[in-house]
Amino acid sequence: MIDVKMPQLGESVSEGTITKWLVREGDTVKKDQPLLEVATDKADTEVPAPVAGRVTKILAAEGAVVPVATVLLHLDTKAAFASGSPLANGPEVPSLQPVAPPPSAPASRPSRSATGGALATPVARKAALENEVDLHMVKGTGDHGRITREDVLRAAEPEPSPRMPALVGTLPADKLPQVVHPGAGGFVPPVPHVGYGAFKVPPYRPLEGDKVVPFTRRRRITADHMTYSKVTAPHVVTVAEVDLHKATRLREAHKERYKSEGLALTVLAFVVVATARALRESPSLNARVLDDAYVVLRDINIGVAVDSPDGLVVPVVRRADELGVRGIVRAVDDLAKRARGGKITADDLSGATFSVSNPGLKGNLFGGAIISQPNVGILRMGEIQKRVVVVEGPDGEDQIAIHPVMYMALSYDHRVVDGVAANGFLWRVAEILEVADLEV
Predict the structure, then answer these.
(1) Is the dihedral angle over the CA atoms 68, 70, 72, 76 positive or is it negative?
(2) N or C: which end of the chain has fewer CB within 10 A?
């Protein structure tokens, strides 16, 4: 007899909520067979059986919040190999025989729950939401036809590109796939690699020395996201010039103190602080669009673009307006280190209400970034360069000086953000940085 306990499902996770039991008392289970589904504030996951056995006692009910290391159920390991046990013939025999579908039902029809919904795990449902996959169209390969996360990811994979050219000249314009909800105008976009209307993309003809680089899954998701954003949101870009003389002096005065604590005091941290404060004052930029409405969001969660081994990722600094400079520095530093170490989680990347993009030391003058959906705005930092500026001298006369200057570009969704609100927001961010109204 062994005890199956609530596992540690993350460094900061101390408890989990039992969302669904997948077995009953008396069931025999295989090793690694999912026993239950658990939800935490970080992720949804399944708890597998550590060994084969028979479930003798379930000790926690669905919906219960259970601390880590609490016993969830008892498994009788001897029963798994007792004479006559379904598991006595080997681990490949399932613990429960699935009921055969009626003869009229197609063999590939996805399994359904008792309520008629798709039979899927919580992690599969989360993956379906993230990848916009209809679970009713996915065939499950898990126990009793349950849809797993892998089933969803397979369904989300794009069709192989060699099949795309066959569409040329075969689809009338009114039959092309729509990527925008009809409530948003029913726009029919062009088909990638094919064209639109009378325009057709010329076919690729390989030449010696060419290198075909297949899309990674992340690159495909990024490409689809960016295309969707440009088609859905009418982007407007406005630019501000920011004199960072005072902010730079403030950073120089305190960066060694931060460095002694293992932290890097950066201009990026200043920009995130200024952005969070301006969003609190201009909440229309902290919003998302629905079908025929929009929501002004309560929490200010800022996505900050950082580099990782798999490419650019945008982890989220939650409730950024409550952190201050030191809190932002710690949060960004932690997220960046975990991103570079490949330890970033799905939870770290979700929930942003606004984004800040930092192209780095070689970021060029400025650029208009594409809005990260479902946000309505993104602020892109430019390269910091020393420039000649006009300043007011001690006697009130204009003087020429050389100061570090940065251009910032705000891209905003003109469906719900007007120019007055956008310009006022960007002006406020610039003002906070120029007067260095920052507590470090």
Answers:
(1) positive
(2) N
Contact 346, 236 (CB under 8 A): no
Residues marked active site are found at: 414, 418
Q: Read off the amino acid at residue 95.
A: S
Conformational region of residue 72, where left means phi above 0, alpha means psi within -120 to 50, and beta covers everything else: alpha
**What is the block-wise mean pLDDT of the chain (440 residues), using blocks of 10 residues?**
83 74 92 86 74 92 87 85 47 40 43 56 76 80 78 74 40 45 52 75 90 81 85 94 96 94 93 96 94 93 79 86 94 86 78 89 84 95 93 89 96 96 96 93
Going by their DSSP bridges, the two strands 302-304 and 294-296 should be labelled as unpaired
The pLDDT tens digits of the residues spanning 226-281 come to: 888 988 899 999 999 999 999 999 999 999 999 999 999 999 999 999 999 999 99
Q: In whole angstroms, give the CA distance from residue 328 to residue 232.
A: 31
Query: Residue 334 and residue 345: Cα distance in Å, rounded?
Result: 12
* Helix, strand, coil share (%) of the chain residues, nearest 5: 30, 25, 45
Count CA atoms within 13 Å of residue 325 on its CB side.
21
